[in-house]
Amino acid sequence: MDIQNAINSINWTSSGWDLFVIIAFVAGIFLYNLNLGRDRVFVILISSYISLALVSKLSLTQEALGIQLGDSFADSAIVFAGGILLLFFILSNSVFSSVFDRGPRGSWFQTTVVGFLQIGFVISAAVSFLSPEEAGALSNFMKFFFVENQAQFAWLVSPIIAVMIFRG
Questions:
Q1: N or C: the chain end with fewer CB closer than 10 Å?
Q2: What pTM value is reported for the model?
Q3: What is the pLDDT of residues 107-149, one digit of tens each?
């Protein structure tokens, strides 16, 4: 599948996942630039990676916390989103946050790029919680940009690469 076919497969007339993803990107980038500086974006990014690690070992997380969850998309997505929020508040109010507090808020361009990549990472991670049958029902656009292994790998590593490029 090529990029042109994936983009052409977007259904603009129905309110499905494709439209939701595009709106999430635009709204997410706008919110990043409006409210967050580079330092908070880095803390949210680290919170996202830690939360994904916890969800990937959901059975161990359930055992350690003494809670019982199913293996559904909703349970995994709620734990993932809740983990991001909880870890963000913990890390942003800890000594850890001073590691990133090194000056100005960062350029608008840097925040936009890292925000875009992180939103893509979060959407890719959330889509990875779908069962194979549910993922198979997604549009070609969603499959190409978020479901395929190469796309998930790209979304996983690209925020880290961007942070390394912009760290100066």
A1: C
A2: 0.75
A3: 777 877 888 888 889 888 988 888 888 888 777 878 888 888 9
Please check whether residue 141 lies inside any domain of the structure.
Answer: yes
Number of domains within the chain:
1
Q: How far is CA 67 from CA 58, 77, 108, in A?
A: 10, 16, 41
Count of all residues that appear for the chain in the document? 168
Q: Kindly report the backbone phi and psi dihedral angles of residue 41, in degrees, each rounded to the nearest multiple of 5, phi listed first.
A: -60, -40
Contacts of 113 (CB under 8 A, 6+ apart): 162, 166
For 7-41, the pLDDT digits (tens) are 565 555 554 666 677 777 777 777 766 666 667 77
Asked, for residue 17, whether it belongs to a domain, the answer is no
Residue 30 forms part of a structural domain: no
Which domain range does residue 126 map to? 38-166
Cα–Cα distances in angstroms (integers) from residue 22 to residues 126, 134, 142, in the given order: 15, 20, 10
Q: What is the pLDDT of residue 112?
A: 79
